[in-house]
């Protein structure tokens, strides 16, 4: 198998003025107040990045959600003030019916823009965390006149978005955003290519994880943990975490199972954004391949550290470039070997056969080879797991992420 290397694209895309600052956020004369805006009430990847940041800024921030859901309760449990402003037609807009969806939702869009602008005027900085939040928050800038930070969680290419949405993002990026934060160099490079922004206009801040939340367990405790989670106690488990969506590639993992007779696949996640048909297709695929008894659909779970720890291996099977790959650093933090698709932000996390195993996206044959090799070579699996855990603690800590994000917010306020 060929080694995988990080492409030498132009610019790691960092804002030099921010990185060079010697003053910590706590040393600045005043702490900016922040309005965070997120479109989803469901705790997806972008929301899990926002959760600790909003908690860090809890005394001087508020989160405005554009739809209600369990994410609200998770924020409020941390003491975060939350407002919900939801409009059914705006919530219903999907990438695959963007033009028609926006036209139908024009009254709701105007209302949402006004709501966000009115709330934003009470704060020093407006922080936009998702695509709909970007559009609605940035279009209202003439009304609120606040510095705008956009946290980019997506690779802005035709692989993920239609031409109209990319045109909207290009215009807003050039005219309404003051600070850009990308979750990987892959994300930053795509944004720069789309917008023509200079490389130093985008700050790359990798996601962080609290490694202390992932507690190792011995064999006896592992069986008890699996029993509690309703998983087979002695099976060899490969866990695939994330929402059920075609580009996340759960079908690739299921396709590999007939050639992995000793492996069970655990899918932790659900169809969140109108992708229920894909979830049903996965069940049919497992039935047709005769592996349904070895595919466990666990649904959405809050206790991700426990579920990660219960696995023998953590998988990532996205068929398109992943913007970052939070589940992989979580798997590493749990001291589990990881197998990931070699594209996008994954190339900034996983070093092939050093701290994990890389396969070509969509390649079920390569996935079979990787899983079976690590199953029959536990010493290699343990070595990769140990190195991955060490790398996460060194390079992807939650504290580092929060410190860097807080600097961006302070910098945005100083530029106002």
Automatic annotation (TrEMBL):
<dbReference type="GO" id="GO:0016757">
    <property type="term" value="F:glycosyltransferase activity"/>
</dbReference>
<dbReference type="Pfam" id="PF13439">
    <property type="entry name" value="Glyco_transf_4"/>
</dbReference>
<protein>
    <submittedName>
        <fullName>Glycosyltransferase involved in cell wall bisynthesis</fullName>
    </submittedName>
</protein>
<feature type="domain" description="Glycosyltransferase subfamily 4-like N-terminal">
    <location>
        <begin position="44"/>
        <end position="211"/>
    </location>
</feature>
<dbReference type="Pfam" id="PF00534">
    <property type="entry name" value="Glycos_transf_1"/>
</dbReference>
<dbReference type="InterPro" id="IPR028098">
    <property type="entry name" value="Glyco_trans_4-like_N"/>
</dbReference>
<dbReference type="InterPro" id="IPR001296">
    <property type="entry name" value="Glyco_trans_1"/>
</dbReference>
<feature type="domain" description="Glycosyl transferase family 1">
    <location>
        <begin position="225"/>
        <end position="387"/>
    </location>
</feature>
<keyword id="KW-0808">Transferase</keyword>
């Amino acid at each position: 198998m060929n080694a995988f290397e990080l492409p030498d694209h132009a610019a790691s895309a960092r804002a030099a003025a921010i990185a060079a600052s010697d003053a910590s956020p706590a040393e600045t004369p005043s702490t900016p107040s922040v309005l965070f805006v997120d479109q989803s009430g469901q705790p997806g990847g972008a929301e899990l990045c926002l959760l600790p940041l909003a908690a860090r800024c809890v005394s001087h921030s508020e989160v405005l959600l554009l739809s209600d859901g369990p994410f609200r309760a998770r924020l409020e449990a941390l003491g975060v003030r939350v407002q919900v402003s939801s409009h059914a037609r705006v919530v219903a807009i999907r990438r695959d019916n963007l033009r028609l969806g926006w036209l139908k939702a024009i009254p709701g869009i105007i209302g949402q823009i006004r709501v966000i602008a009115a709330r934003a005027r009470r704060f020093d900085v407006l922080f936009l965390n998702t695509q709909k939040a970007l559009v609605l928050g940035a279009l209202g800038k003439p009304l609120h006149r606040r510095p705008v930070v956009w946290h980019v969680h997506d690779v802005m290419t035709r692989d993920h978005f239609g031409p109209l949405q990319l045109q909207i993002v290009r215009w807003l990026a050039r005219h309404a955003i003051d600070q850009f934060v990308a979750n990987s160099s892959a994300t930053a490079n795509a944004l720069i290519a789309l917008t023509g922004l200079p490389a130093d206009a985008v700050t790359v801040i990798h996601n962080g994880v609290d490694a202390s939340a992932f507690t190792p367990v011995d064999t006896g405790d592992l069986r008890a943990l699996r029993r509690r989670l309703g998983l087979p106690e002695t099976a060899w488990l490969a866990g695939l975490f994330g929402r059920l969506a075609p580009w996340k590639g759960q079908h690739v993992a299921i396709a590999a199972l007939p050639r992995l007779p000793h492996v069970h696949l655990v899918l932790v996640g659900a169809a969140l954004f109108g992708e229920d048909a894909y979830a049903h297709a996965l069940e049919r695929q497992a039935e047709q391949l005769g592996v349904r008894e070895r595919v466990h659909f666990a649904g959405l779970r809050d206790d991700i550290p426990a579920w990660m720890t219960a696995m023998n291996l953590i998988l990532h099977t996205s068929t398109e470039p992943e913007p970052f790959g939070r589940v992989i650093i979580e798997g590493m933090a749990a001291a589990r070997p990881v197998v990931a698709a070699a594209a996008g932000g994954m190339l900034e996390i996983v070093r092939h056969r050093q701290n994990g195993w890389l396969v070509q996206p969509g390649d079920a044959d390569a996935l079979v080879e990787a899983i079976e090799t690590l199953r029959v070579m536990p010493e290699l699996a343990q070595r990769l797991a140990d190195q991955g855990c060490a790398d996460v603690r060194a390079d992807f800590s939650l504290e580092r992420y929060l410190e860097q994000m807080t600097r961006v917010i302070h910098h945005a306020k100083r530029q106002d």
